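Q: Fold this one first, please.
A: Sequence and structure below.
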Amino acid sequence: MADPRVTLEIDGAIAVITNNNVEKHNAFDDPMDLALFEILGELQHRPEVRAIIWRGEGKSWSSGRDVGSIGNGDQALTHHELMTRGHRGIQRMFEIDAPIIVPIQGWAIGGSFQRALLCDIRIAAEGARFMLPEVGHGVIPDTGGVGRLFQMCGHGLVSDMVLTGRLLDAHEALAYGIVSRVVPAEQLDAVAREMAEKIAASPKVTVKMARRVIRHLAEPEVVSSMSAELIYQTFVNKSDDYAEFRAARAEDRAPNYKGS
């Protein structure tokens, strides 16, 4: 499902995925999701690709979900089914032999930030910012990245970011190991390309085996957390408190939550 807002270019051994919804800071809607999942599926079957760069045009890598598109997706699917499709789609990256490098500028928010966390390497431009604002919208993060963030940072920072929506800047992200490098914005793409070329020049089987060791340590917990998110987010969307959250917002009044 071609969508000009998410594109794939292959240049020899290096593939480049580009978020190109610049007017909306590369916010994703359902058609963009499907285009991304199709690209990931294609890359599963491109053995000549040795490294992948997933970048964004414009001021931000991705500001998360396009809130204007919520409720305008495939009405034939329940929320649970949409989440299941999203999990299966993004988990395709786990089956790609080539490592994925994510150079991040501007905002990386919500589900998009979580998707970046599921990749192999993240680097940030000066001024990059990271946020998980879902709880402030009455729901929980549900794209699998919280499991990976917990592996990187532990309970305290994850709880702060998830429960308060705390903003994290590039240098804090570096200190916590969320990104491995912070570079000037004008050098971001060049540094990502240099990293990809170095990986592509290494023996293919060696890179594959090194990644398998890392994945063996990391992926089981992430997949388990995604399964829990699927259950709990479905519950949240059917809960009395979420209905009260939406009603209070619509009626411009204080909510009366009961914890159910």
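Q: Good. Now the second chain.
A: Here it is, same layout.
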Amino acid sequence: MNIDNFTNMNNARKVFLLISLLLIRGLASAQIPDRVTATQSFLDTIRMNYAAENSFSFDLYSLYPIVNIPVRVNIIMKKDGTAGVMQQDIRYSIDAANSYFRNAGIIFFIDTIEYVNDYNYSFITYNNLKKELLTKYGVDDRINLFLADSIKLGPYFSYGFTYFPDMADSNFIYLNKSYARGNFLTTMLGHYMGLFSTHETAGGSEHASENNCSSGGDFICDTYADPDLFNEVIDSCRYIGNMRDENGRYYVPSVANIMSNSPDKCKCILTPLQYRRIYYYYHRYRYYLNKK
């Protein structure tokens, strides 16, 4: 074999490997990431309440009574006059959320489904959360779920947005219609009830060893340290990343946590301490939502 043929074959292998890597990354990025990040206000709240939260009476296996929280669904109509989402998908998402939240003593139910006949409201941005929309269609004492055609936080698109429980008058969740079926609403409800993303870094990154789990990351000590799984988990639910923490240690994250950026098909768990946080922050901040 002459040197030119060898060089051509070597270049071909490099191209093949590059294409293969791009295809793998493509499989890992089939959804928009969750971009709901910790506010300074709620970071301060988590730190202030941390001891009380961890001493709060909670038994994962004997929660009674179950509280019932109404959800008012508002579907913002598209420009062509269609809804762009099926009611059965919304009901599926509520049922999916209940399969988790009942472990924290909470059940959600659809109170009403309304249609907003103004497509100008269907493009939600962080800097313009449509005060007119909330004034016209928001209802007190229940969760107001708005299904829009797109949601943008700063320069980036997200599949949803909501508020942490320390915010007054914050009974709103926005969800992209394309993500109305699956665990995406469950993740938003997790934030709504006080959970950070497992890859949160606003209060400091969690070490791969998890030895700072009470003061970094999601401030929960039974979730795996997470370097952010977006683009790092392939279709078979296998983590393909090689990220290290500030100490040079490799992360070994879970691809299954509902509050991660893992592909939706891979997500299937919340941990006992995540349930306790939901339970604590419901009783401290969201208790008025219960409809007996």
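Q: Anything worth noting on the second one?
A: The beta strands are 67-76, 106-116, 123-125, 143-148, 150-153, 156-157, 160-162, 172-176.
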